[in-house]
Amino acid sequence: MALGWLISMVLIHVVNRQSFHWSMDLHLPWATLTEFALVMLGLAVLTALVSGRRAMGTEAVRAVKEDW
């Protein structure tokens, strides 16, 4: 998100002025961006929990014990 914001600043304030000789106002939808970031964080935590539980399941432990 930070990189996208930085690229948009360059495009709006540098490229548009030099190439097209005009500028535009920028309005960021803070509520939507915050909601998106929280949903992505929640999904990442859920994915880590599910994959961690699956990795520590009895089948995985048995497979490692059988190799020794």
Q: Could you explain the architecture of this structure?
A:
It contains three helices and no strands. With 68 residues, the chain is mainly α. It has one domain. The longest helix is centred in the middle third of the chain and has 26 residues. The chain starts with a helix and ends with a helix. The mean pLDDT is 89.
The gist of it:
The chain is mainly α. It is 81% helix and 0% strand.
List the defining traits of the structure above:
68 residues; mainly alpha; 3 helices
What is the fold's blueprint, element by element?
Elements: H1 2-20, H2 30-55, H3 58-67
Helix content: over 70%
Q: Determine the number of helices (DSSP H or I, runs of at least 4 residues).
A: 3
Order of helices and strands: HHH
> How many strand units?
0
Helix/strand-derived class?
mainly alpha
| Overall morphology | elongated
Backbone CA Rg: 23 Å
Report the sheet with the most strands, covering strand number, pairing sense and barrel closure. none
How many domains is the backbone divided into? 1
What fraction of the residues are assigned to beta strands by DSSP? under 5%
Cα(first) to Cα(last) distance is 46 Å
Name the poorly predicted regions. Answer: none
Mean residue pLDDT: 89
